[in-house]
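Please check this one:

***
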Amino acid sequence: MDSMTANLHPLRDARLIGAAVDRDTAPRLRGLVALEQDRADIVSATLAVTAHGVYEAFIDGESVTESVLNPGWTAYEWRLAYQSFDVTNALAQGRGNVVALSFVVGNGWYRGDLGFARANANYGEEIGVAGALEITYRDGETQRVVTAGDWEAEASETTRNSLYNGQTIDARLRRTRRPVATTSVALDTSTVVAQTAPLIVRNEVLTPTRVWKAPSGRTLVDFGQNLVGWVRFTTQGQAGAQIRIRHAEVLEHDELGVRPLRGAEATDVFVLSGEVDTFEPTLTFHGFRYIEIDGWPDELTSTALEAVVVHSDMRRTGRFACSDPLVNQLIHNSVWGQKGNFLSVPTDCPQRDERLGWTGDIAAYAASAAFQFDTADFLDGWLRDLRAETEHSEGGFVPLTVPDVLKYANFPDGFTLPWHRATAVWGDAAVWVPQALWTAYGDLEQLAEHYPAMTMHLHSIAQDVSRDGLWTGGQQLGDWLDPDAPPEDPGAAKADPAVVATACLYRSASFAAEAARQLGKSDDEEHWSALAERTQSAFTQHYVDETGWIQSDCATVYALAIAFGLLDGTTRKLAGDRLAELVVQSDYRVTTGFAGTPFVTWALSLTGHVDEAYRLLLERECPSWLYSVTMGATTIWERWDSMLPDGSINAGEMTSFNHYALGAVADWIYQVVGGIRPAAPGYARVRIEPQPGPGIDWVETSYDSIHGTINCAWKVVADTFELAVSIPEGIPADVILPDGRVLEVVGGSHDFRSAFAATEVSR
């Protein structure tokens, strides 16, 4: 940041102020602002704030924003976001000429003891907030007030706060002041950037569907939906009495199933004042459907509590419904999985001692995510962090998690991760996530912003590529969570890791070439195209024979080779036939993990095996997408068998019930079953090509593109396929019917009919 820019920074000269309180207590920082003119003369006022930790901001005791958990989680060392709030009305409506500006600061992600396996990773041990209030008066005069070392500090009523463990609020302390010493350090504004990603907000409120006593005698509450957020309520009871709420996603043996939480306590405690108290623990969040509640002062009813759903602010853009209610629930689960895990960063899970931005999960899921919600700004913000982390990593490698807090982890002896080597799928997030954004939104400026990270990733792979052109080196996670892998070893997949990695290299090099072409980088386009060609040649020479057989002969390797375009002509057809054969041999049960699952139905339908793809989608026995639905899931599970048929939780140490990666089949459902596909970036041209199959009689799909809403509805009636579509005005669309006809329309509503003989499917 140059000196001129620094002098214009909204937080210039602001100090990062904290308090001398214990690590659990959330301090309150307070400053009094003497207005230089009457409130009536204020024409505008803006408050800019950031923090090491998470903050809540107040003017005259009233919150300045509906957003929560600000400033969110970024790569704090290089990108600390600040938020700007219009507080004109808050100042104008007050009384007197003194304004009380205050902040409450929690540990958040900055000092959150993050990670797993007792990693206890933190960015620092001191939390604090920096703010600047700028007021403009009617005569043009401006007044600017910044946080400073002379502000007052006190211990708030929050006596414990942790993202993993929960929050304790003592209502008795709300009316008392407990002054403490203020701490103050300079804010490095060179790392402070304006907020671009959407803020975290309260999105909806759910009420309990059931309140009952468990066999243990404890009171349990079911909110009917696995969600992310917290419980809010108002009650009155004896002063000093405690209400304790523990959260979990599932029940096991009719009690709260807390083992999957591992080290996360996920427990909030509320201490009553004796008066009417309202509690809302906004310095933490939990992933839960069920709670266990102790200490309620009288009989608990379903109207006494509400669950507040919290996630980054995203507009819903995609919708799907069909004749099979289980598939509808699967899509519902995918949507709610995205809600719960798109909280500041795209996380793996929201409930246990982890909640990290694992790159492999979003690499698998980005395309599905971009159909369901407008993710342009959310994923753009995360990719800026990925670029910063990659630029500063040893060797220019994409970290396994972004932000890469695990580099500060204090793991026990013997625990290792592939820190400083490129990892297929996970590292490929640097390419695949921008590819999903480019496909969905066609934003050339965003593509240019993310292109450097693509090239860093591809360059970092070079040391692990053999002379033959195969990606054989490094430490690979491969087809993670292959359902045939033992619970204690989720990386023990059927697919050869080198086959997976080499296929991924081809896909990433191919899109890097396309990105370079779009950006006018002809030399880069030639370079990456040549890498893709060499990789394809090496893959087919070393891993594929003339019969279409691919090394390790499992569904994942065929899915990747076909979906990524590594195979041509007869070889592609033979590989598709072999994949279909494997699917039939498995009785249509899923045999793929993280790498193969997003692409297996695509590979089937691309090679003429639509019926097999439908049968795979509609299978209900474990492992399958619909197995979890039959078991009552309301989000996507981490494992195909996170819960066993007898209702017990999988014995593996790593078991989550809100983990969206295996829900990446949603992308295929929207595009192939639903029929809405982009024919050009940003849906500037649309391809309407629903491919009906056995077991589903009708489908309705819609997508709110940047050009307008696209609708596609089809049904099969007496061997006739009926299709109704609507396209945004002026947008061309290619309509491909089951009988092979290809028609072009431009905007408007259109109806089509085609011959189609439905295939029966037995259940």
In short: DSSP finds 15 helices and 34 strands in the chain. The two ends are 64 Å apart (CA to CA). The chain has a mean pLDDT of 95. The longest helix spans residues 497-518.
